[in-house]
Amino acid sequence: MQIYPIDTGNFKLDGGAMFGVVPKVIWQRTNPADANNLINMSLRCMLIEDGNRLILIDNGTGDKQSEKFFSYYYPFGDHSLDSSLKKLGFHRDDITDVFLTHLHFDHCGGSIEWNAEHTGYRPAFKNAVFWSNENHWKWATEPNAREKASFLKENIRPIEESGQLRHLSLPSKDFLSGTELGFDVLFVDGHTEKQMIPHIRYQGKTLVFMADLLPTVGHIPLAYVMGYDVRPLITLDEKAKFLQRAADEGFYLFLEHDYENQICTVKHTEKGVRLDRTFKFEEVFN
Length: 286
Fold this sequence. Notes:
There is one protein chain. The chain is an alpha/beta fold. Helices cover 23% and strands 30% of the residues. The chain has helices spanning 15-19, 24-27, 67-71, 81-87, 105-108, 134-141, 153-162, 232-249, 281-284; strands spanning 2-14, 38-50, 53-57, 97-99, 112-114, 121-123, 129-133, 165-168, 175-176, 184-188, 195-202, 205-209, 252-254, 263-269, 272-279. The strands form three sheets. It has a seven-stranded mixed sheet. A hairpin with a 6-residue loop joins β10 (184-188) and β11. It is globular. The protein starts with a strand and ends with a helix.
């Protein structure tokens, strides 16, 4: 197995929304804001090369939305999914599986592209199976008013219509071991219904793709919960349980949205679980 970080771009979000009830004077110490109160966010995905499989975890915003849509999120930087794949000697047609942690537009927007005539949509990974789960799929396709702006039907419906969609089985509790994709999955409900958090055994370590359970290192303290989370009190409980285990077992946390840090570890302190160290991917994994 070989794992690669995949940078698909960067964007900006409102810092207050990202940190909920935590005052700006506190959160800006770790996530400084610009004059418009916006903080830098990455769209960092993961590519797993495992035998004949090439698995992409999440895929950024894509580029099919309107100029007006993207003007709300201030995309910046030179990274793209295709350029990142090309640097590694891959093409999107090589992808065999696209694992979607959840269906918010910044995690799955790259799944779908315009067709050649620009009259409709088609899967951007024509040879891939797309993985979700039934509960989250229903949640996303029948969205509540709070999340409706994040669940864009043009990112979701064409996957099902293509016949390329498959669902992971839901576990009796919250953890699914030994999936078809070769890694374990933690299911969490605070941010959105049945978000999936991959746990991958790699080079003798446990590497966890954090998605929106832990967007940045600034979100490690328990009360630092996004305003976007639909069930913030459940997020508190899920974070507490996960971070305890991450500190106990020395997990390496792969950060999808942290503009400055690719990976971190956490440790126990008198104040609870806190940041231990941050790393670039290549500093941990060969």
